[in-house]
């Protein structure tokens, strides 16, 4: 990623856990809202989430943030 935006964030563990739960729920809702849309109806289930993430940068960013946050929490424990 040549033009990547890098962000450094310090949170207390309790805040990080709360943010993780919030992001998970937002991601779940966003994915579910698009899963049954006509646009993806003919996309096979195995490829559907990838197609949605490709078309929706917000959800793709949430997925990356979730992964980074989970890794940071695991490393802190």
Description:
The chain is an all-alpha fold. 70% of the residues lie in helices and 0% in strands. The chain starts with 12 loop residues before the first helix and ends with a helix. It contains three helices and no strands.
Label this structure with key terms.
77 residues, mainly alpha, elongated
Overall average residue pLDDT = 94
Number of helices, where a helix is a run of at least 4 consecutive DSSP H or I residues: 3
β-strand percent reads under 5%
End-to-end distance: 30 Å
Write the layout of secondary structure elements.
Elements: H1 13-35, H2 45-55, H3 57-76
Helix pairs in contact: 1-3, 2-3
Give a short summary of the structure.
The chain is mainly α and 77 residues long. The chain is built from three helices and no strands. Helix 1 (13-35) packs antiparallel against helix 3 (57-76) and helix 2 (45-55) packs across helix 3.
């Amino acid at each position: 990623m040549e033009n990547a935006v890098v962000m450094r964030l310090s949170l207390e563990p309790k805040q990080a856990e709360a943010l993780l739960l919030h992001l998970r729920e937002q991601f779940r809702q966003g994915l579910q809202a698009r899963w049954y849309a006509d646009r993806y109806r003919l996309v096979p289930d195995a490829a559907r989430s990838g197609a949605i993430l490709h078309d929706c940068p917000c959800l793709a960013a949430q997925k990356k943030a979730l992964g980074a946050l989970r890794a940071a929490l695991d490393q802190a424990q």
